[in-house]
Amino acid sequence: MAKLSASVKTLREIMTDPEVENDRRRTANILKRFLLAVFRFVVLIGISYVILGPIIGMVANSFFSDEDAYSALVYLIPQNPTLDRYKTALSELNYWSTLGNTTFYIVVLMLLQVFICSMVGYGFARYEFPLKKVFFACVVLMIVIPPNTIMLPLYMTFRTFDPFGLMTAINGSAVNMLGTPIPMYIMTLFGTGLRSGLYIYIFNQFFRGLPKEIEEAAFVDGAGMWYTYFRIMLINAMPSVITVAIFSLVWQYNDTFYANLFLIEDRIVISKRISSLASNVANHLQLNDPTIIQLYTYAGIVLVVLPVLLLYILLQKQFIEGVERTGIVG
Amino acid sequence: MKKRGLTLMQKRAVVGLLFILPWVIGFVAFYIRSLILTVQFSLSDIVLEDRGYSTAFAGLKNYLYIFTEHGSFNQTLVESLGDIVIDVPLIIFFSLLMAMILNTKFKGRTVIRAIFFLPVIMNSEAITGAMDLAREMMQTGLSGSSSEMLEATNSGVNVDYYIALFRTLALPDSILNYVVSAVGRISDIISLSGVQIVIFIAALQSVPSSLYEVAKIEGATTYETFWKVTFPMVMPHIITNIVYTVVDSFSQSEIVELAYTEFSTNMMYGSSSAMSLVSTVLVCSILGIVCAWISKHTFYYN
């Protein structure tokens, strides 16, 4: 008994020895940090897999030949890789000419968005005028109310486009603009395009953060208000211009809502072609096996996503920093 | 006597109005007018003609129709709103957690961040549809045509067993249902939280480090620091994120789809407008109530 209590005593002495205590703490700390790192690693890898998984699967499957698709032994890595899916998808999508048209369409819209939204954002950020708060509330309203709510009137408006009888005066009758991208151009020109409210908000937030001295110096040097805006403020707003430009490009490229609403031809909007790709392939190749048709769809999607993905990989930093820096964070 | 021109203030006001003029025209012509027209359409019978359309006032007929006669409106409406109500808190908490993990320094952080933002870049309807298919295929293998059977036998996890287990632990069924449905939609939640994560990361980085130093000196644990410092400081951004999330998931929801098919394939213009209006008003009022409640409890640092 005495022996036991003595050994307990020595044990306690060892435990409370400052050096040992220090060591113990350090080990616990290291262990804690290690476990945290493992936890983080597992969570991040898992979630990355959820995001990347389908993309990897799509890319891999688009190279499958017919036997691979039915072989139970093949998973991700094809045994007889084939480029047929891509060849067919390229011709069915009419890829290069459609891509060219789409690029023209989205670049024009992007320029309009940047130009109009920055102007409106600048007006809100720097000038005082009556009802400013009401107007700005309307911008926020535009962000909150989805365009789906007002789709029917928009459809009707552009089906018989006749502002103040102007078209009737020129043409003799109202113009049906459905089927062309013109409705989209008009709406964007007047600051009500795809997510224009958000872009106005971003620009407003950015211009408010710029020092007023820049403009005052310009005024003193005799620059007019428009000159100041174009030659000085817009140049200074480059970070948010880039943000809005790339988001506008990507979102417009992906947009199917407006494209469907205005019945824009799929010769112009590549994202619309994807939905008809499966049935087109089935018709032309006389296929009726959904598994095989799906492979062609995958190849088509890879082709459609590729430009955006390349843009993203190139400008990855601008995308993410854009959201961080320019004011969606209010 | 010379006629006096405008004062500088007035001049600036005029220029300011000129700056926003294009948007004002667009807003009045496309938004205000369309909103009024939507209300009018929902209250009338519409006949599409060669040159435009004609409307005849029909009272609340369209509303009665969608609520009492339409085959799937009620169900879709409740499901869509339910989805939004379930998704929003999950997305907010998930993205806050992810932002906190991504805000620490480790190797390969930029790569992971780039991956997390990827769904924002690829959120096209056609693409997400095919992606869902691809996701199923990744789980079962392409040859697994009877995917459900394979799933049940291969994964080796008997979900029902675990559900029963938690039920015997006297967890309320409502909570259990919520958890189960949350787990089921994990991939949706991940792909919907790209922007929110980035916003939260920016918010976390804007918290002054002196606050953390004080907390540390006062002996706060990490847990306490989170609830007393981090959480209150990112509160204002939670509202931004909720607005973004609700709008985003609403515009992708089934009910919007239903309203679109109602008008594009069924040519029921009146009831389509009524559907749009009902769902928008409901979503906006949910948004308003939630935001009002949160901003009441929000602490503004500045």
Largest sheet of chain A: none
CATH homology superfamily name of the largest domain in chain A: MetI-like
- Beta-strand residue percentage of chain B: under 5%
**What is the domain tally of chain B?**
1
Shape of chain A: flat
Query: How much helix, percentage-wise, in residues of chain A?
Result: over 70%
Q: Kindly give the count of domains of chain A.
A: 2
So, CATH architecture of the largest domain in chain A? Orthogonal Bundle
SSE string of chain A, helices as H and strands as E = HHHHHHHHHHHHHHHHH
Radius of gyration of chain A: 30 Å
**CATH topology (level 3) name of chain B:** MetI-like fold
Sketch the topology of chain B as an H/E string, one letter per element: HEEHHHHHHHHHHHHH
Low-confidence stretches of chain A: none
Task: Just give the CATH class of the largest domain in chain A.
Answer: Mainly Alpha
Span of the ends, CA to CA of chain B: 51 Å
Q: Which percent band covers the strand fraction of chain A?
A: under 5%
Q: So what's the CATH class of chain B?
A: Mainly Alpha
Interface with most residues: A-B, 101 and 93 residues
What's the structural blueprint in terms of helices and strands?
The complex is a heterodimer of chains A (330) and B (302).
Chain A: H1 2-16, H2 18-61, H3 66-70, H4 84-93, H5 95-126, H6 132-144, H7 151-159, H8 166-171, H9 182-189, H10 196-209, H11 213-220, H12 225-236, H13 238-254, H14 257-261, H15 270-285, H16 290-314, H17 316-325
Helix pairs in contact in A: 2-16, 4-15, 4-16, 5-9, 5-10, 5-13, 6-10, 11-12, 13-17, 15-16
Chain B: H1 8-42, E1 44-49, E2 52-57, H2 61-69, H3 73-103, H4 109-121, H5 125-140, H6 147-154, H7 159-168, H8 173-184, H9 186-192, H10 194-205, H11 209-217, H12 222-251, H13 254-264, H14 269-297
Antiparallel strand pairs in B: 1-2
Helix pairs in contact in B: 1-14, 2-14, 3-10, 3-12, 4-10, 10-12, 12-14, 13-14
